[in-house]
Amino acid sequence: MNYQPIVDGRSGEPVSLEALVRWQHPQQGFISPERFVGLAEQHGFVAELDAWVARRACADLVALLDEGYDLRVAVNCSALNLSNLQMPEVVARILERTGLDPARLTVEVTENALMNSLGAAVRTLDAVRELGVKVSIDDFGSGYSSLAYLRKLPVDTLKVDRAFVQEIAEQANDRAITAAIIAMAHKLGLKVVAEGVEEEVQLAYLRENGCDYIQGYYYSRPLPLSALRDWLAARRPLTAGATIA
Question: Model pTM?
Fold first, then answer.
């Protein structure tokens, strides 16, 4: 497991983590998530993989909370798992066993995954939110981006697709789209995370337009838990009094 910090858009204080699974094979070296997650989906193991990630992430967050860090954690849900009727029950068991407050967990789903089975996804996510868990749409703007479906979805947060963020400095259209997504989300009562932030100019534009949360190499790459602890410890004076989003 690796964790990439998500910080408050105004203060830069760490408020959340995204859990990212990694595989360093002893013979083949680094295996990309796209490859092994795709294989897990193809061979029917993706529900077990998602559950393993959620268990580790929740347990690790409980440990960090015990150390005094006021954080949330986000875990990704695969497209196939969205139509799994047992998924909300699995999440509930993980929360019970780890003792994590449901309000500190976010389930992330991609925009395209939602559209593959919208009806089933809405039912699943409704059940997840009934547990007190937050729901986020990842890669927003990369797919359909339809207001017609967005108003029906039980979501709390939108993550602006990194493709728009990366070109903020060069492309006026990407600046306009990013600003429009932030404004639209706020009108709907949603929070916004910008991912893929690497440069000061990107951060400045996002802050100017009221983006709630920032994620990207500008602050930190994904880190294993031990390195994450070091990163958090180095910023600890800044995190006093941080609150859950």
Answer: 0.90
